[in-house]
Structure formats: C-alpha cells, structure tokens
Amino acid sequence: MLSRLRPGELREALPSCPPEKGEPLRVILADVERQILPGITHWNHPAFFAYFSITSSAPGILGEMISATLNVNGMLWRTSPAATELETVVLDWLRQLLGLPEGRFGVIQDTASASSLVALAAAREAVPGLEARRRGLVGQARLRMYTSEQAHSSIEKAAIVLGVGQEGCRKIPVDEGYRMDPDALARAVAEDRAAGWTPFAVAATVGTTSTTSVDPVPAIADICEREGLWLHVDAAYGGTAAILPECRHVLDGCERADSLVVNPHKWLFVPIDLSAFYTRRPEIVRSAFSLVPDYLRTPEDGLAPNLMDYGVSLGRRFRALKLWMVLRAFGREGIMERLREHLRLAGLFRSWVEGDADFEVMAPTPLSVVCFRALFAGRDDAEHDRLNDEVVEAVNATGEAFLSATKLRGRTALRLAVGNIRTEERHVRRVWELLNEAAAARRG
After folding, report:
1. Residue 134 falls within a domain, yes or no?
2. Is the separation of the CB atoms in 151 and 234 below 8 Å?
3. Residue 65 neighbours by CB under 8 Å, 6+ apart
4. Residue 262 CB neighbours (<10 A)
5. Which one, of 375, 393, 395, lies nearest residue 443 by Cα?
6. Alpha helices in 126-242, H assignment, sequence order
7. Looking at 289, 317, 345, which one is the last position of a domain?
8. Residue 390: left (phi > 0), alpha (psi -120 to 50), or beta?
9. Which residue segment(s) compose the domain that 346 sits in?
10. Residue pair 230/126 in contact by the 8 Å Cβ criterion
11. How many CA atoms, within 13 angstroms, populate the side-chain half-sphere of residue 31?
C-alpha cells in the first residue's frame, strides 16, 4: 500500500531524454505497471487510514473520464454552458444535503487551500478604505487575521500569499477538546486593535486535521459580527458529516459565515480534486478577482455567471460532472449509509483502545478519526514519542495498512482515519492487530 521506493529511485530508472519517436501504447502501459505502480501509495486501498480519505468511486471515475474526453474549459458560460450550469445546480444540491440556507453562491475550486485563499482574498477586499487590489498592501494598514492553533496550514499559507504574512496570522489557543477558545479570540482582537493592527478575518475549522475537532462557530460568529470581521469556515473534511441528520450540528453557526468550504473529494467519494466553495457575499469575491480583457467579453455577460471571476484560475476543468454522477449514483440514502458505517468503525476502534491498558485515547473523536498512542511502562515522554513513532512505521512497513502521526500538546499521537468507501470492519481489526504486535515487540 505504502510505496517502498527510495527517493530518486524512479527518476534514475527513467530515460534522461524524451523519446525521438513515438512508442506503442502497449509499451507505455506496460511501463505504467512495471515502473509507475510500484511508486504509488494506494489512497484507494481500504486499509488507508493515514490522512483524510480521497476515495475514488466508480461513478466519480467515470465522470472524470468523460470530463477529460470532452476537454472543455468552463471559464466563461459561453465556453461550455453545461459546465457552468451543471456546476451551479450540483453545488445547490450539495448545499441542500448539508442543510445550508438558500442564497449561497457556490463555485468549485481545486482544493480547500485554493478555497480558503479565495475566501481570505475576499475578506481583504471587504476591508473599508483598503485598496489592496489596486495599490497592494505597502504603506497601508497592517492586517491581522485569526485562526486556531489546530487550523490547517493552508490558512497560514494564504496569509503568506496575500501579503498579510505569517506575523499577520495570529493563532488562537484551543480548549481541552482542541477547539478555538472564543474568549481568547476576543482578547486577541482587542489587543491588536489597541496595538494598531487592522483585524479583518477569522478562519474557523469544522474537522481539524489532527483531531477533527469542531470550533465553536456560533460564538466565533458573534465576535465576527461585533467586530466587523469576515468569517470563513474550513469544513473541508468535517462538513460532509452534516449530511447525516444526527451530525447536522457540526455546521451550527455556519449559516452566519461569509464563506465556507467543503471538499467532496475527502469524504464524499469524489476523485480528487473538487472543493466546494460557498459564500453569501459573491459580489465581494467577484470584486476581488474579476479581471476581464476584451477578448473574453461576451454577449451573455450579465445574463449568466462566468465562473472564472470567482477565483484565481482562468482555466476551469469540468469538475462538476463527477460530483453530479456521484450524487446521482449514491443518492442521499446511499451516502448516509456509508458515512454512518465509517463513524461506527471509528467508534469501534476507539472502544478497543479504551479497553486496553496498553493504549490510550489522546483526543475526543467527534467524527471518524481516532487519535491514540501505545503506552510503555517506565518510559518518559520522549521515549513514548520515539516508541510510538517506531510503532506507526512498523505497521506501515508491513504494507497491510497505512497510518499517520501528529503532535498533540507536544506529544506524539497516532491517527486512524476511517473514510474509504471500501473499508470494512476486517480492515480495522487487522490494523489493531498490527498495532498490538508492533507495540508488544517494543515492550520486550
């Protein structure tokens, strides 16, 4: 499952120059199997537990193939009306499944990193009196944005790209459940205003990468409304859970957000890449990004949206097709059935950890990721960290399963993320067996 190649091994095996003459496809395909597949880490494997899943389902694969065959660029409505209009319809379907209110404008980006960048660029555009689009930030306000210590690195990266800088991205402490502390946020905003900063945005998270914690969005929204800050919600992974009525609460408060991102390529069986970006202020997003040269003006301008105006890329693949096919093939009932099974499997694994004195749970499990570690009697924290790193590498080296590790309050935690459409209970049981074997071997 985890590729066994060493760095540079494939590069050394390939010719250093391009071929002078064309080669038969049968030869090329044979080399795909002989040279490329050994270098693939199999994200579609049912025992892939390392990161948030990006499972490819059959209807999603077919949608991707048809999109590649048609090879359209949906930058303008005119350049492929079906690409624009299907995107509008299918994102509204997804909005309804998630329980988001009507009136949200949706547009597909490639990943949550791009969606969050778009959101924060719009937030910068919304700052009164700031002319960042025309003049840049030099000599203007010192902008400050806020996110939690557990937020995805793409939020900080967006600050770098937008000229806000790492110093302009203030990380807010979290509570015992690894959720942003609203009181600490309020204090930070007040301190920064007093120090001459211009606060402009908050990025909350629904389903953090390390622990899948859900920030208290309603309380954060109160602060944003009081302080005039743009609220962006990164629900790239966790937002999908809201399709389940019993998990609808994960998006509580998100109806008040200025923007929100959910990634169907994480937990909705759509092949990567497809990120659904929603906003209740599309005019601000368009103001931040729209730049239309004469050769791209059409008679339909004003009658239909040109989706290139709502992001960085001019070229836009027909991504909506694969999401449309997945939603139609599974339906609400089929999606809910699979999400519930993933939550059940994560809960089952957590129960095994809780029932074994040689392991411990290290964080709450609000969704389908379990954070835990093996315990080694008589060892200090540094030894625990080292031995847990060895345990996860030993499991991964078997080729039967793939897990990842993170740091929680400075200590190593192992992560088991359930989300692959093909994962069954037997796969979860087997990785538990492998973990016990690896830990036992290090207890002597």
Report:
1. yes
2. yes
3. none
4. 36
5. 375
6. 132-135, 153-161, 182-194, 217-227
7. 317
8. alpha
9. 327-443
10. yes
11. 9
Dist. CA 100–CA 106, nearest whole Å: 11
Burial environment of residue 256 by CB neighbours within 10 A (0 to 12, 13 to 18, 19 or more): middle
In a domain, 36, yes or no: no
In a domain, 50, yes or no: no
pLDDT for the residue numbered 2 = 83
For 395-410, letters b (16+ CB in 10 Å) and e give bbebebbbbbbbebee
Backbone torsions φ then ψ of 171, nearest 5 degrees? -95, 125
E strand spans, 29-188 = 105-109, 143-148, 169-172
Name the nearest CA neighbour of 262 among 279, 245, 246. 279
Q: Which of 108, 57, 116, 99 has its CA nearest to residue 271?
A: 57
Q: Residue with structure tokens 């302080």?
A: 227
221-261 pLDDT, tens digit each: 999 999 999 999 999 999 999 999 999 999 999 999 999 99
Q: How far apart are CA 79 and CA 91, in angstroms?
A: 20
Q: Which residue has the tokens 């997945």?
A: 326
SS3 of 148, please?
strand
Provide the greatest CA pair distance for the chain: 76
Residues 157 and 138 in one domain: yes
Q: Tokens 């088991």 belong to which residue?
A: 416
pLDDT in tens, 339-370: 999 999 999 999 999 999 999 999 999 999 99
Q: What is the CATH number of the domain that holds 363?
A: 3.90.1150.170
Enter the pTM of the model. Answer: 0.94
Q: Determine phi and psi for 279, rounding to 5 degrees.
A: -150, 150
DSSP 385-409: HHHHHHHHHHHHHTSS-B-EEEEET
Q: State the chain's mean pLDDT as an integer.
A: 95
The single residue listed with the structure tokens 């969704």 is 367
Q: For residues 172 and 314, give the distance between their C-alpha atoms in angstroms, rounded to a whole number.
A: 35
pLDDT band, very low/low/confident/very high, at 136 (cuts 50, 70, 90): confident
Tokens of 352: 């095994």
Q: Which residue has the tokens 């010719």?
A: 15
- Domain end marker among 317, 341, 376: 317
* Residue 127 and residue 152 in contact, taking contact as beta carbons nearer than 8 Å: no
Domain count, the chain: 2
Same domain, yes or no: 119 and 232: yes
pLDDT digits (tens, 9 = 90+) for 158-191: 999 999 999 999 999 999 999 999 999 999 999 9
Rg (CA), the chain: 23
Do 378 and 270 lie in one domain? The reply is no
Q: Do residue 271 and residue 168 come from a single domain? A: yes
